[in-house]
Amino acid sequence: KTKGFIFDLDGVIVDTAKYHFLAWKNLANSLGFDFTETQNEQLKGVSRVESLKKILAWGNTTVSDDKFQALMALKNTEYLEFINKMDDSEILPDVPRVLDYLIENNQGVSLGSASKNARVILEKVNLLSKFKTIVDGNDVSKAKPDPEVFLNAAKSLHINPEDCVVFEDSVAGVQAANTANMISIGIGSKAVLHEADYIFNDFTEISTDFINKLINN
Ligand code: G16
Ligand code: MG
C-alpha cells in the first residue's frame, strides 16, 4: 500500500531550530529583553509572524506595523546568514536512510514545513530531490497547530489524511498532525511531545520493522 510520509523540516531533517532560536534571541536582546529555551519550545513549528507576536508579548513590548515588518525582516536576514553556511553535514542522523527506504518502497514522501525558507534549506543540504511534493510557509495561510499544511501535503500526494504519517519536533506540529487525523511521530523529548502517537529521540531509533508496520497497517 502507498502511504503518505510527511516530514517537518526544522528540527526533524536539519537542526535549524537552533538558528531560529539564536536569531530570535538576538532580536529580543536588541529590544532590551530575553526569553528562555523553555519559552522557545512555543516558537517551534509556528510561523514567523506568530513567533514575533509571542516574543513581543513576552517582552511586554508593542510596536507599529512598520516596525513589526522591519523586525521580521531583520530576524530573517540573520537567520539566512546561518542557512547560507549549511551543507549536507547538518542533516540529522539517519534521515537519509529513512527517506531512501520510503522512496525505494514507493511511498509518498512530502515536506510539510511552516518555513518560507524550506526550499533554500533543502537545496543547501542536497535533499530537494527526495521529496515528491513540498508544502511550506509560502503555501499556507494558517500556522500550525492548524492542520492546513499537512492536509495540503496529503492532497498534493493524492493520499487520504488517515493514510498519512507525520514526523514532527514541535508541540504545535504534533497537534496539527493529530487534528488532521494523521499518525503523529514526535522526534525529540517525551516530556515535550507526549501528545504524539509515537516518540523517538531521533531517526536512529526508527527501525525498518517499525516503518514496515506503518506502511502495512
Ligand atoms: C519552522 C520553525 C519555526 C519557524 C517557522 C517559520 O517550521 O520550526 O520556528 O518560525 O518555520 O520559518 P521562516 O521564518 O523560515 O519562514 P517547521 O515547520 O519546518 O518546523
Ligand atoms: Mg519543526
Overall pLDDT, averaged?
97
* Main sheet overview: 6 strands, parallel
Shape: globular
**Ligands, deduplicated:** 1,6-di-O-phosphono-alpha-D-glucopyranose, magnesium ion
Q: What is the number of beta strands?
A: 6
Please state how the strands of the largest beta sheet are arranged side by side.
Answer: 3-2-1-4-5-6
Tally of separate helices: 9
Structural class: alpha/beta
Which strand-content bin applies to the residues? Answer: 5-15%
- Succession of helices and strands: EHHHHHEHEHEHEEH
The Rg value, from CA coordinates, equals 17 Å
**Cα separation of the termini:** 9 Å
Helix content: 40-55%
Low-pLDDT ranges: none
Structure description:
By secondary structure, the chain is α/β, with parallel strands linked by helices. The protein is globular and about 55 Å long. The chain has helices at 17-30, 37-40, 48-58, 65-83, 95-104, 118-124, 148-157, 171-179, 208-216; strands at residues 4-7, 108-112, 133-135, 164-168, 183-187, 198-200. The termini are close together. Helix 1 crosses helix 4. The longest helix is centred in the middle third of the chain and has 19 residues, at 65-83. It is built from nine helices and six strands. The structure holds 1,6-di-O-phosphono-alpha-D-glucopyranose and magnesium ion. The site of 1,6-di-O-phosphono-alpha-D-glucopyranose has 21 residues, from helix 1 and helix 3.
